[in-house]
Known about the structure:
Chain A: Keywords: Protein transport, Transport. Chain A: Belongs to the sorting nexin family. The complex is a heterodimer. Chain A is mainly alpha-helical. Chain A has helices spanning 35-53, 63-67, 69-72, 123-136, 164-182, 191-198, 203-209, 212-215, 219-228, 234-282, 289-363, 371-379, 384-464; strands spanning 73-86, 92-104, 116-122. By secondary structure, chain B is mainly alpha-helical. Chain B contains twelve helices and three strands. Chain B has a three-stranded antiparallel sheet with strand order 1-2-3.
Amino acid sequence: MARPGPGSAPARSAAAEPPSPMESTEPEPSGSRPEEEEEEEEEEEEEEEEDESILSPPEQPLAAMEDCLAKKMEITVSEAEKRTGRNAMNIQETYTAYLIETRAVESQSEGQCAPVESLWRRYSEFELLRNYLSVTYPHIVVPPLPEKRADFVWHKLSADNMDPDFVERRRIGLENFLLRVASHPVLCQDKIFYAFLMQEGGWKEMVNETGFQLKADSRLKALNATFRVKNPDKRFTELKHYSDELQSVISHLLRVRARVADRLYGVYKVHGNYGRVFSEWSAIEKEMGDGLQSAGHHMDVYAASIDDILEEEEHYADQLKEYLFYAEALRAVCRKHELMQYDLEMAAQDLTSKKQQCEELATGTVRTFSLKGMTSKLFGQETPEQREAKIKVLEEQIQEGEEQLKSKNLEGRDFVKSAWADIERFKEQKNHDLKEALISYAVMQISMCKKGIQVWTNAKECFSKM
Amino acid sequence: MPHPLATSSSEEMGPALTPSPDLLLPRSIADKDLSLPNGTPVDTSSPASSSSLLNRLQLDDDLDVETRDLFVTVDDPKKHVCTMETYITYRVTTKTTRAEFDLPEYSVRRRYQDFDWLRNKLEESQPTHLIPPLPEKFVVKGVVDRFSEEFVETRRKALDKFLKRITDHPVLSFNEHFNIFLTAKDLNAYKKQGMALLSKMGESVKYVTGGYKLRSRPLEFAAIGDYLDTFSLKLGTIDRIAQRIIKEQLEYLVELREYGPVYSTWGGLEVELSEPLEGVSACIGNCCTALEELSEDMTEDFLPVLREYILYAESMKNVLKKRDQVQAEYEAKLEAVVLKREDRPKVPADVEKCQDRVECFNADLKADMERWQNNKRQDFRQLLMGMADKNIQYYEKCLTAWESIIPLLQDKPETK
């Protein structure tokens, strides 16, 4: 299973979260809440204040890596359990719950084992956590979750969500997800993530109270931005192109691999028929009998060996799948950048048009045909007072717009900077992980070849005695 | 492989005491057959009789090469395009020291039809012997290009094997028709002669061999019959399995051929991973080549031998049936005699002749069966070991390919 690349987090990653461009629209949380959550909320607000104070985050020292949660805590998803319950609509449903166990790693001097904390989470809660993370940290390539439904399976593999093998693979995938978040220099410091690991009750409410959903951009808006943005950042365009290609090549690879597995399974299993027929044949032979009989046994062994081989190979497929989903996370960052760029361009455009209006009013010339121009021609000019007032309002708006543009520009630059830092970190992680995955795949193939040689050598030995 | 120990006794009696099939032969040939076992080199190998049969089997072919005096090979297939038909001829080369041949070396061209003619002639003239099978006239599976290189080569091998088996047989190798087949410039002249004879005699041959039904086979032959039934059945299954494996392998190959290049495409997207991914792609390519070789070897070497033995078992069954008929004829005649002349104990000459024929047939058949069993054991040992070897080679090639890319994947030190 893929481990998060340990050394792949670059030191320059900002520890603090830069303000989201949509933050100003976030409504203040209201209403009475349980005390402990209030505390949590306060901390969040503090963080936000901090964020504002450091618009361009200073480069953090190497400490970021040492600070990450994965170093301070052991995290495992140790168990999966099938449960039945009633959902919000009061409809009976079956789901799988996963046991998350955490244990603080004590400093070496103390040498004592901290107690293990454990709690249950279901897949939908992991989904909520990831949603929250990706909305809250738009500049970060947020680790993906393992697939909800088994995909790219070959025929022997069950696509059933409750299939024990699938549940087991998902358990490993979820653990991997938590480890990746915990070792991420920025994400590991998130309070909600920490609470996800430590606090079973009230967590969902806590997430919802962050109001992250309001920050989420609608797909439509994103689509709009894609088509209308005028000056896209070349680096992000390339990255987006790369993630598209990566996604398509990995999904192609996974599809073909599933078919390859199917066929390989066939080749091995058909050899199993030799086992049976050699044994039947041996019954009528004198000198050849023993050799045939035992060679038949080796053919049975050969046919059976493919099950383990392909099961092991499924881990490789899971590693590839993680990167298939990572491609989507990468694209989300690009999409966010596009959106910000679009916002910026819209604001600039608005400002330009306001400036033009102001100029028109001040000089009395109408450069372009407009309804206003028509009405003024038809109904006579406005009074100078009215005009003055309008100009004043416009000038105020222009000033406001200019400030907004400035802050959006800053925001954008900041986004690009931190996003690019995380993308660099991601690239290193990706290169490291995939190389490891390829090595383990090659090792698997080598062991399969060795097994094959062994079985056929044994069979040959039997044949030679005939 | 000749086994004079097992067959010499029956050989000596064989041709002499089986009059009816020899009707088709010119008298001189039949006489020649009679004198056969004495001066022939087959007998010179008898010093080996001190060693057991098993030991002989385990000896290398060297010994046989020394004692062999007849070598036949089939090679150099040629396509002939005439106005009427298109066909393939094969060169049949003979090298011999046998006195029956005027020259030490012959080279003739024969087509499938000629082999077929030879086999029919052998069956007619040596009904008590097991005649090796010819490859099927047409390939059963699908429409195969009869003139494709693979088909011609597979057939050439099978025809070569057919002649080698006859050459190795202590009786069949001295058959006059075989001699004609190997040496005659114009085989068609002999063919026509044969046809004329057959049309005259054909009816009587049928009459002689048919019409009687055996009540029960002697245990020993019943056992052979049962063995052959099971053997053909199992071999048929093995043939189907082998074909299925080849089919699965080819489908696997198709997918594998698509699989490798995807890594290459991916490599094109990457910077640091480019080399490892290209490496994996090339490695899968090598595995494809190895797999292709494996299934080619299995198609060309494994399947034809299986087919030959399936047909061989059928030939054997036919001989067994013929034996039954001869025995049935004898029993029927004996019964008739017993019913008619209970008082007279003397058995008429033709019934006695019949009894001789049965005994002779039994002896020939048993000897051929034993020879066949030994051949079969050797052939299958070789065949199955070959199959294992091919698979081992395949895996070794793949192993080398995968091992060679490990350094490529590890080469660049990790960034941290």
